[in-house]
C-alpha cells in the first residue's frame, strides 16, 4: 500500500515542490492542502497521471478550518504516514519597536499554532499505528538572528524546539520526526514578507544563487525514504553564497 503524505502549504514554495518530488517516486498518495484551492486544482491535474491526489482547502491558522479539513478527509486518506508541515510565512522586516502586531499574530497563528493544531490531531493515530514521520520546516532564521527577523525567527526557533521535544516523546515508537532549516531560498517567501513589493523581494536574490524549492524538496524526500530505523533529527541547509553574519557593534 502506498504511503499517504499530507503536505500543507502545498500550493507554493517548498510544499508545491514536495508534491512534485513525492509524486515522481510513484509510491505515495498525496493530500495537498492550502488556502488556494484553485492552485491546488492545477497542481493536482499535473500530478494525477503519476499518483493519487486528494486536494483540500486548509487555513492552518484557523481551528475551524483544520477541524473541517480533518472531518472531510476521505476514508482512504485518513491514515497519514508522512506529514510535511510546509505552511508558514514571514511578514515584515521592521525592527521590533516598529513592527505591526497583527503581522506577529498571523505568523504565530500560522507557523506555530498551525503546526500544533495538525500535530495534535494527527500524531495520536501515528503512535497508535506505530508508523509515521513528521517533517517540520524551521529556518536558518531560527538559529541565526538578523535585524527585522524578530518574531518570524522566534516562530522558527519554536518549531525547531518542538521537533526536539517530539523526538523525546516519541522514544519507544517507530514514529520519526525531522526538522529542516533552509536558508536563503528563491520562493514567493520574500514577496509575501514584503506584501507584494516585487522590486524589494527580487533585490534579495539579485546576483546570488539561492536555494530553489526543489533543492529543499529533494532533501525532504530523501529524509523520508531512508530505512525506517533511521531518523534524521535536523538539517540546516544554505546556498553556497550564504554564511553567518558577524556580531554587530554600535558606536553609540
Ligand atoms: C527563510 C530564511 O533568512 O530569509 O526562512 O529568513 S531567511
TrEMBL record:
EC number: 1.1.1.313
Pfam families recorded: adh_short
Gene3D superfamilies: NAD(P)-binding Rossmann-like Domain
Transmembrane segments annotated in the record for this chain: none
InterPro entries found in the cross-reference section: NAD(P)-bd_dom_sf, SDR_fam
Keywords: Oxidoreductase
Keyword field contains Iron: no
GO molecular function: oxidoreductase activity, acting on the CH-OH group of donors, NAD or NADP as acceptor
Catalytic activity: 2-hydroxyethane-1-sulfonate + NADP(+) = sulfoacetaldehyde + NADPH + H(+)
Pathway: Organosulfur degradation
Top-rank taxon, per record: Bacteria
Subunit structure: Homodimer and heterotetramer.
Family the UniProt entry places it in: Belongs to the short-chain dehydrogenases/reductases (SDR) family.
Name this polypeptide is given: sulfoacetaldehyde reductase (NADPH)
Source organism (scientific name): Thalassolituus maritimus
